[in-house]
Specification:
about 425 residues; mainly alpha; globular; single chain
Length: about 425
């Protein structure tokens, strides 16, 4: 009863403010993006059969990574630019046109990479319908203008685009995927729907700001290179622990670690909606108002770190009971690993807050990239030794220590920047 009353008060407080409503809307998007794929998964696995399902899963992984390449960090670099000059319609039109051009340019090398990957993987070799579906997904992503609306702090278009894509694709899969012969259809559906919604989003943008033509994209390819490289480093860093565990530890321990990591890594996305709301606010505030900046930093920090602390504590307390009840005694080691990595969960909320709400709005992405590279290199050395001598438990503690070092490095660097610039 007490917990329910507290939650209702928190919800009313959030709903009573514009910023709180935006956070709630984005949590709705994240919830739908998490739940609907889980609902679709059994249907696809049963309908397609193991071999066809494996082809679809691998093709989706390829499409997702190439979409990541097409994004090229514009979700950070271009969003920040929109946030800082949101009232200049002519400049926004030029920016939107150039970023669209840059993304369409990136589709071409992505297409060549895609067909090369399909040729190299025996499971996908000759499956050109899957390749066409994956390419459709990449092209659809290139048209996605969510970055623009995020910079403008307009949540309704984001709801329309992201929920529309997920719901339409899910309905299409349930209606039309009826057997192994439809294995590539989920990709084709996603590509078709995302292209259509992306085109609508672009029409929405260019009905309000002038379209300056498909040119100037190379300038944004240069500007976004640092963000793109930073994203690639983060992706590589997220895979490093599993690679080390797979290389140094026995298969049974690898399975235990993989299970625990999947639980913890899934929860890291919980602070994404908060970051998506406060990143453009702080990008604008840092450029215009010290008082506004301080206020949004307090709100963003309390929201992100508060949620991180609560989730980490709940996970640490509940893990032994939940794992033994729902998974069984065979995963006892996973329980220990989840409890260890619950500390990582809180630290990731801290580094997420500092990175997305302080470093990026201040334009300190080069400094953050340097810190991250140093931590990755240190983790590679420490994690290898830990895996060799202490197994998966050692790797779990190395993950926690790596995030702690990154957080401390970010805090010290910000103090140095503040003193140097007299912020």
């Amino acid at each position: 009863m007490v917990t329910g009353s507290v939650l209702r008060k928190i919800f009313k407080r959030l709903w009573g403010s514009r910023t709180g409503r935006k956070v709630l809307y984005l949590y709705l998007v994240q919830g739908v993006n998490y739940v609907l794929p889980l609902l679709v998964l059994p249907h696809l696995a049963h309908t397609l059969g193991p071999e066809t399902f494996a082809k679809l899963a691998l093709a989706q992984v390829v499409a997702n990574y190439l979409s990541f390449l097409v994004d090229y960090g514009f979700g950070f670099s271009a969003t920040r630019e929109v946030a800082t000059r949101r009232t200049d319609a002519e400049w926004l039109g030029k920016l939107a046109s150039e970023v669209l051009h840059a993304r369409l340019v990136l589709v071409v090398p992505s297409g060549f990479l895609l067909f090369g990957v399909f040729y190299l993987f025996p499971l996908l070799r000759g499956e050109w319908v899957y390749a066409l579906g994956a390419l459709a997904v990449v092209f659809g992503y290139s048209l996605n203008p969510v970055w623009f609306f995020q910079g403008k702090e307009e949540v309704k278009p984001i709801l329309f685009l992201e929920l529309g894509l997920r719901i339409s694709t899910t309905l299409g899969i349930f209606l039309w995927v009826r057997g192994p012969q439809h294995g590539a259809l989920p990709l084709l559906l996603q590509g078709f729907v995302s292209s259509g919604l992306g085109a609508l989003g672009l029409f929405w943008i260019f009905s309000r700001v002038p379209f300056s033509g498909l040119r100037g994209g190379t300038r944004w390819l240069r500007k976004g290179a640092l963000f793109s490289f930073y994203n690639m480093i983060l992706v590589a860093y997220s895979f490093l622990p599993m690679l080390l565990v797979s290389f140094f530890c026995p298969p049974t321990a690898v399975g235990q670690y993989a299970f625990a990591e999947r639980i913890v890594r899934g929860l890291v996305n919980l602070w994404n909606p908060i970051g998506r709301v406060f990143f453009p606010k702080l990008s604008f505030a840092f450029a215009h108002s010290y008082e506004t900046t301080r206020r949004w930093l307090v709100y963003g920090g309390l929201a992100t770190l508060g949620l991180g602390a609560v989730v980490s504590l709940i996970l640490w307390i509940v893990a032994p009971w939940a794992m033994s009840r729902f998974i069984g005694p065979d995963y006892r080691l996973s329980t220990e690993l989840v409890q260890i990595m619950s500390f990582y969960l809180f630290l990731s909320s801290l580094t997420s807050f500092l990175g997305l709400q302080v470093f990026f709005p201040l334009g300190l992405e080069r400094l953050l990239l340097t810190l991250t590279l140093l931590v990755v290199a240190g983790f590679l050395a420490l994690g290898s030794v830990a895996a060799l001598h202490f197994g998966v438990v050692g790797v779990a503690w190395a993950v926690v220590l790596g995030e702690l070092v990154l957080a401390m490095g970010m805090i010290v660097s910000l103090a140095w920047v503040a003193r140097r610039k007299r912020l």
